[in-house]
C-alpha cells in the first residue's frame, strides 16, 4: 500500500472522570486499545481523572471512545472529554504498542 493510499490516522486526547483510579481502568483501557491496534498511552492524573492519547484508524478510535464512556465493571465513568491534541501528538506521534504511563 502506498503512503498516499493508507487510511488517515486519527489522534485524540481523552480525559475520563469518575471512579477510574485504583480499579484497573488504565490496564483495561490498555488491553482494549491493543486489541484495536491503537497506539498511544494512558495515565492517572493527580486530580483523580485518567488521561489518554489514542491514535489509529478512525473506527478504532471511535470504538475506544465508546468503551471509555463505560469502562469495566469496577469503574463509574461520570464524563469523558475529548480534544484534538497539539504538538507532537497532533502530528500523529504516539508510542506503539499502547502504554501505561506514570501519574502526572
Automatic annotation (TrEMBL):
It holds the Pfam family Acylphosphatase. It catalyses: an acyl phosphate + H2O = a carboxylate + phosphate + H(+). PROSITE patterns: ACYLPHOSPHATASE_2, ACYLPHOSPHATASE_3. Keywords: Hydrolase. One of its GO terms (molecular function) is acylphosphatase activity. It comes from the Bacteria. The keyword Hydrolase applies. SUPFAM superfamilies: Acylphosphatase/BLUF domain-like. The active site is at residues 26, 44. It is an enzyme of class 3 (hydrolase). Residues 11-102 form the Acylphosphatase-like domain. Gene3D superfamilies: 3.30.70.100. Its EC number is 3.6.1.7. Belongs to the acylphosphatase family. This is acylphosphatase. It comes from Rhodocyclus tenuis (Rhodospirillum tenue).
